[in-house]
Amino acid sequence: MLEKIKTMYNPTPGMPPEKIGPTVGQNIGKISLPSTTLHFFDLGGQRDIRSIWPKYYDECHAVVFVLDACDQARLSETWEVFDEVLNSPRLLNLPLLLLANKQDNPTSLSVAEIRESFDAWQRARANREAENEEATNKDKGKGKAKEIVNNAEGVSGEVEETQPHDDGGAKDERMASLDVMGASALEGTGVRDAVNWLYIRVQNARKM
Ligand SMILES: Nc1nc2c(ncn2[C@@H]2O[C@H](COP(=O)(O)OP(=O)(O)OP(=O)(O)O)[C@@H](O)[C@H]2O)c(=O)[nH]1
Ligand SMILES: [Mg+2]
């Protein structure tokens, strides 16, 4: 994605896709826009490399999380990593863009589907946590006399308790304003929109 950005904005093009290998560590790049220079740090996404991400958190003014919208098998892992980024205290007040890459591929999930997938993952996690809490509470109640109530039809009544997951206000706000966009680093679609998103956010941050 960074190489495509360089190719689209700089006089000297970035590396062509066929020459790009997995990012070990970081790649850097910059582009000049009217009255602003954007400096990019492209951090590798492999598991071992993720531990270096926090080293950059204090220096950056915005975060773009690029995900492979074709790799449905790894979406759950993606959401775990993304959720950690989303909740990093040092990033909480920075603009965050979720960029669904590979939109050129017919099998890629759309922006709406990506949003829905993350929502579903969050709901599933909240349910798991509620169940764990219930199990813990039940454990605590062991030994006490229990009254088992069955309804007349003999159907065990399942009470669905929707326990609100308390993440604190900042996270709720973050979720409500989460920006998700689609792009293709291969074809360049959506790349200008993403760069404009960054440009506007960084300009706005300066004015504050
Ligand atoms: N179809 C399609 N393939 C892409 C696109 N972007 C990257 N790829 C391919 O996906 C594979 C991985 O690309 P990388 O650029 O290494 O992905 P990355 O996210 O930078 O991976 P790390 O550097 O390991 O974090 C390569 O085979 C790319 O050619 C895209 O927009 N569309
Ligand atoms: Mg890379």
TrEMBL record:
<dbReference type="InterPro" id="IPR006689">
    <property type="entry name" value="Small_GTPase_ARF/SAR"/>
</dbReference>
<dbReference type="Pfam" id="PF00025">
    <property type="entry name" value="Arf"/>
</dbReference>
<dbReference type="InterPro" id="IPR027417">
    <property type="entry name" value="P-loop_NTPase"/>
</dbReference>
<feature type="compositionally biased region" description="Basic and acidic residues">
    <location>
        <begin position="162"/>
        <end position="172"/>
    </location>
</feature>
<keyword id="KW-0479">Metal-binding</keyword>
<feature type="compositionally biased region" description="Basic and acidic residues">
    <location>
        <begin position="126"/>
        <end position="147"/>
    </location>
</feature>
<dbReference type="GO" id="GO:0046872">
    <property type="term" value="F:metal ion binding"/>
</dbReference>
<keyword id="KW-0460">Magnesium</keyword>
<dbReference type="GO" id="GO:0005525">
    <property type="term" value="F:GTP binding"/>
</dbReference>
<protein>
    <recommendedName>
        <fullName>Arf/Sar family protein</fullName>
    </recommendedName>
</protein>
<keyword id="KW-0342">GTP-binding</keyword>
<feature type="binding site">
    <location>
        <position position="45"/>
    </location>
    <ligand>
        <name>GTP</name>
    </ligand>
</feature>
<dbReference type="GO" id="GO:0005794">
    <property type="term" value="C:Golgi apparatus"/>
</dbReference>
<dbReference type="GO" id="GO:0034067">
    <property type="term" value="P:protein localization to Golgi apparatus"/>
</dbReference>
<feature type="binding site">
    <location>
        <position position="23"/>
    </location>
    <ligand>
        <name>Mg(2+)</name>
    </ligand>
</feature>
<keyword id="KW-0547">Nucleotide-binding</keyword>
<feature type="region of interest" description="Disordered">
    <location>
        <begin position="125"/>
        <end position="172"/>
    </location>
</feature>
<dbReference type="GO" id="GO:0043001">
    <property type="term" value="P:Golgi to plasma membrane protein transport"/>
</dbReference>
<dbReference type="GO" id="GO:0003924">
    <property type="term" value="F:GTPase activity"/>
</dbReference>
<dbReference type="GO" id="GO:0006886">
    <property type="term" value="P:intracellular protein transport"/>
</dbReference>
<dbReference type="InterPro" id="IPR024156">
    <property type="entry name" value="Small_GTPase_ARF"/>
</dbReference>
<feature type="binding site">
    <location>
        <begin position="101"/>
        <end position="104"/>
    </location>
    <ligand>
        <name>GTP</name>
    </ligand>
</feature>
